[in-house]
Amino acid sequence: MATVFAGSRAAASLGDQRARATLRAAIADGSILETRGFVPLIRSSGRWAVAVHRHDCLIFTAVLAAYPDATSATLRTARLGPAAAPLDPRVPENPDCQALGQALDPAGPQPAMAYYDRYPMAQRPIAQVLLTFVPIRTVTTVLGWTTFLSFVAVALVAAVRRTWSLAAAALAFALFSGTWHFGAMLYFAPLDLAHAAFLGFAVMAAGERPRLAAFAVAGALYGAVIGAFEMLTGGIPVALALIAMATALASPSRPQDWGGRLAVTVVAFCVALAGVFAVKLVAVSFATGTNLFVEHAPALMHRLRGDIAPELSPAVAERMRAVFGIDLAAAARDPVQGPLVLAAIYGYWSGLIGWGSPIIGCLVVVVGFGVLVVASLRAFPSPTASLRLVTVLRACWLAVAVQIAWVLVFWNHALLHGFFMARLLVVPVLCGAVVAVEVLRVRRGAGSVLR
Questions:
Q1: In a domain? residue 47
Q2: Statement: the pTM of the whole predicted model exceeds 0.90
Q3: DSSP string spanning 36-91?
Q4: Does the first or last residue of the chain, that is N or C, have fewer Cβ atoms within 10 Å of its Cβ?
């Protein structure tokens, strides 16, 4: 967090005039409304042609917010909420983008500033620097290519080092997690780059006896980076899934050491992750004389359970009522209807990992699960099954269980934010790819029940 605080202080010294000019230019030339497909060369259309900056508007408003002093600009994070006014068609329709448009129009209604200290939001100083010097369209292009190619590069290095399972995981992530779309956003790109970096570490660490200390350091760095950029966008459960798989694949000849590697890495990750959030909240609490842990606890609890009606979009509620004949707010609290509604929502939003097609999205998830289930049914009952394959299967089931547990714990959040949380569906796809490679490896070996 010291790096985030220092970056925020340095970025604040740049002022916001050039950032405002960049954003005004983006509105004037229409680049703020730019849409982007989910993989290169395939453009989205219809409902899937979504403005790529609709999430980034939250970060942009944090840049434009008027912090009262240097301490606030260093430690705190603000956001702008739109004033009551007709929708501005020059910017995306969501509230953050509408507030952005209002903030850039001094003659119109001005948005209200509110502090948003529950997240470190390390994207803010990065956004301030980029908006000061670089047009938005350039930022989008560079981020998108960098994020996508980082996974491709990891896959190529893994192939050269003949760690084929990790190569399959990196390639599957690049192709089936919407990286081309989400990786072009400041909101998601740092998290995706952190995932790519950890997979890259796993590729380089794979060997006969990888050191536990290396996994502890990697886990701590991974947790710190995820904590600095995470805003309940799914970065944490995906990171835990990658840790489970990467630690299982780290030592081809000693899969029995998986438990130790996993425990060390997860503990280091969680301690660093919690530490980042704690430092942010403690620092702001001391600076303001308020207890932010108490102040933001209700918002966290609301992500878990409670009435979702206040946050539910009227358009979404009406669509669910028209298509399924149900009240989404009531169904969320029903133990039978709730899971069915969740499945329907995520079935639709599986298009995020299916190149804009829910059919492809559901298909790749089903195939991934199918490979995992069939391999497990054949390997687990057999006393002669490959220990490495069994270890990888256990790691994959753990990875899937983490995603399910995350959704069950953050139930309201999962229901309300399927439009990006559906990216969690990439985990069974990754597992299917990894297990398929492992099964092929075992079949080419001797003495396996899977020959």
A1: yes
A2: yes
A3: --SBTTB---GGG--BTTTTHHHHHHHHHS--SSHHHHHH--EEEEPPS----TTS
A4: C
402 in a domain, yes or no?
A: yes
Residue 132, domain member (yes or no): yes
User: How do residues 245-264 score in pLDDT, each as one tens digit?
Assistant: 999 988 755 667 888 899 99
For residue 191, the tally of other CB atoms under 10 A from its CB is 27
The last residue of a domain, from among 136, 160, 193: 136
Q: Which residue has the tokens 């229409």?
A: 30
- Which residue, of 109, 136, 163, is where some domain finishes? 136
Q: What is the DSSP letter of 111?
A: P
Is the separation of the CB atoms in 171 and 433 below 8 Å? yes
Residue range of the domain that includes 383:
302-451
| Count of domains observed in the chain | 2
Task: Identify the pLDDT of residue 263.
Answer: 94
The number of beta carbons lying within 10 Å of the beta carbon of residue 436 is 18
Are the beta carbons of 423 and 178 closer than 8 angstroms?
Answer: yes
In a domain, 83, yes or no: yes
- Neighbouring CB atoms inside 10 A of 127's CB total 21
What does the pLDDT look like over 187-228, one tens digit per residue? 999 999 999 999 999 999 887 667 889 999 999 999 999 999
